[in-house]
Write a structure and sequence with these properties.
The chain is α/β, with parallel strands linked by helices. Helices cover 33% and strands 20% of the residues. It has eight helices and eleven strands. The strands form two sheets. It has a nine-stranded mixed sheet with strand order 1-2-11-10-3-6-8-7-9, sandwiched between helices. Strands 4-5 form a two-stranded antiparallel sheet. Strand 4 and strand 5 form a beta hairpin. The longest helix has 20 residues. It is globular and about 55 Å long.
Amino acid sequence: MEGNITDNNLIFETLVDYLSKNEVKHSIKPVYRTNDFVLYNEDSLEVMSRLPENYIDMIFADPPYMLSNNGFTCQNGRMVSVNKGLWDKSNGFDDDLFFHETWIKESKRILKPEGTIWISGTYHSIYQCGFLLQKLGYHLLNDIAWFKPNASPNLSCRYFTASHETILWARKDKNAKHFFNYELMKNGFFPEDNLKKPELQMRSVWSIPTPSAKEKEFGKHPTQKPISLLKRIIQASTKPGDIIFDPFNGSGTTGIAATLIGNRKYIGCDINPDYIELTIKRYEALKKGKGLFE
């Protein structure tokens, strides 16, 4: 195992250097870089297009939900707009589908044959993503229902309160053998999840609260995921030394969770410099041992 970690360290460094020197269009240089944590303030498709085939061990993607429609929701007991930014505004069914197909197709190219992808979303986008995973030849492994016990109430009182998101898990190559940490998922300690029974198989419904206030100390992202959710995903599907890629970095929770677990390499992309800066603040606080994330 130590040899594999050493090899992946070299691969990771070589990859970042390659992206910086590649002059096919323009060189892409990280705005932040450590030995195991790299951030790009770039369009993720631009970054992915420079990555070699069969390179990444795991991808977690939380793409735009396309639900910024001038509606309202409840947040901390107040009525607020659902609009998150132009990046979350639908351009119509066909254009949205094309957008998702483009990045999911590119994700498949850069994943190793045994590599897996996790995609999180609501009903606004997740069914398009699930259809495309099948169309593009991925092998679906699970659909996880992430139940939010502290979800915001529904203001219109005209339909059920949205209290879950769906997370799809799929493998690149149907004939490859992916990694699944079955023992940890069965016997691990998951105090945040009141549905997980001790020493029994983990099921596909996870009860995990939305991010706590301390996870948003340095700022927040409108679709920020709880660290405990990403820690579970990373522990379940990666090994020490693995390279994890997040094409929609947001507040950097995937990278923070990978750092907390340790012995993982993280690459994150986001086109918004404010979210890149937020990620850097969170990461540096973690490395200084402030204890904000446990």
